[in-house]
From TrEMBL:
Role according to the record: CRISPR (clustered regularly interspaced short palindromic repeat), is an adaptive immune system that provides protection against mobile genetic elements (viruses, transposable elements and conjugative plasmids). CRISPR clusters contain sequences complementary to antecedent mobile elements and target invading nucleic acids. CRISPR clusters are transcribed and processed into CRISPR RNA (crRNA).
Active site feature: 28 (proton acceptor), 41 (proton donor)
Record has Metal-binding as a keyword: no
Key words, A-Z: Antiviral defense, RNA-binding
Record-annotated CRISPR associated protein Cas6 C-terminal domain positions: 121-244
The organism of origin for this protein: Candidatus Syntrophocurvum alkaliphilum
GO function terms (MF aspect): hydrolase activity, acting on ester bonds; RNA binding
Pfam families to which the protein is assigned, alphabetical: Cas6_I-A, Cas_Cas6_C
Taxonomic classification: Bacteria, Bacillati, Bacillota, Clostridia, Eubacteriales
Protein name according to UniProt: CRISPR-associated endoribonuclease
Family statement drawn from the similarity comment of this UniProt entry: Belongs to the CRISPR-associated protein Cas6/Cse3/CasE family.
InterPro entries, sorted: Cas_Cas6_C, CRISPR-assoc_prot_Cas6, CRISPR-assoc_prot_Cas6_N_sf
Length: 247
């Protein structure tokens, strides 16, 4: 299930340049079922040692300007946010909570929700052309005696695609209890634009590498649909991996 939320503000909406954490906190804070909010935030849906929150969201969409010296981004009202989840309870709770409020705080910005639109679920087949509206992330973590090393992979790299495919299979199993019969899934980039679409984002003092761009997803329609609901790749609940359909 997916919604878009449009916000208005009497002033410019000013956020840190890397504002994913502020959006994530906003979503958690606007779930009225606090037990469910705590469950999603602290535990999520588990599979072996992995935890999945099963939601994702876009970057803020609107007119903005960046002040690199101050490390801030300023948006003109209105702005739009897309939120998507495989768990209907998450979306309905969020939407109903926001509709009951006159206003809400995003960081130090007082916002009014002007509209909430429920998206029509697309038809899913074995092929879908998509545009990233928040970067997709694929990584591995190596642990040794002294430290932990994280290595990020590009969707232009087959190892990155395989990490994302396995991530979707794990999400499917976390939801359904079994792996999908058809495990086929592939990501085909639109041209050799890896450097252009590479994004470096800081989330709570952690540097994350992700990728925007246009891609063709092929394979099991159920896995493609799951990537629409929960995001492509990892760190979806931190604002990564959200995509929209293009023609």
């Amino acid at each position: 299930m997916r919604i878009s939320i449009e916000f208005n503000s009497k002033r410019d909406i000013i956020l840190p340049l890397h504002y994913n954490y502020f959006l994530q906190a906003y979503l958690y804070n606007n779930l009225s079922d606090k037990d469910y909010s705590a469950f999603i935030h602290e535990k999520g849906y588990e599979l072996e040692q992995k935890k999945f929150k099963l939601f994702t969201f876009s970057r803020l969409m609107g007119t903005f300007r960046i002040n690199p010296e101050k490390g801030i981004i300023s948006f003109k009202s209105p702005v739009k946010l897309i939120v998507s989840s495989a768990v209907e309870q998450f979306i309905t709770d969020l939407a109903e909570t926001l509709m009951r409020k006159d206003d809400s705080w995003l960081g130090n910005n007082l916002l009014e929700v002007s509209t909430i639109n429920v998206h029509r679920t697309p038809q899913f087949s074995a092929e879908k052309k998509v545009k990233m509206i928040s970067p997709m992330v694929a990584y591995t973590t190596l642990n040794n005696e002294n430290n932990k090393k994280t290595e990020y992979y590009s969707p232009w790299n087959q190892q990155g695609v395989e990490i994302i495919r396995q991530n979707l299979i794990n999400k499917y199993k976390a939801i359904n209890g079994v792996e999908p019969e058809d495990k086929n899934f592939n990501i085909i980039p639109n041209g050799n634009q890896e450097k252009k679409f590479k994004k470096i984002i800081t989330y709570k003092n952690t540097v994350i590498i992700g990728y925007d761009g246009l891609f063709k997803l092929t394979g099991n329609p159920e896995l493609i649909q799951l990537s629409y609901s929960t995001g492509l790749g990892s760190k979806n609940s931190q604002g990564f991996g959200c995509w929209e359909e293009i023609n």
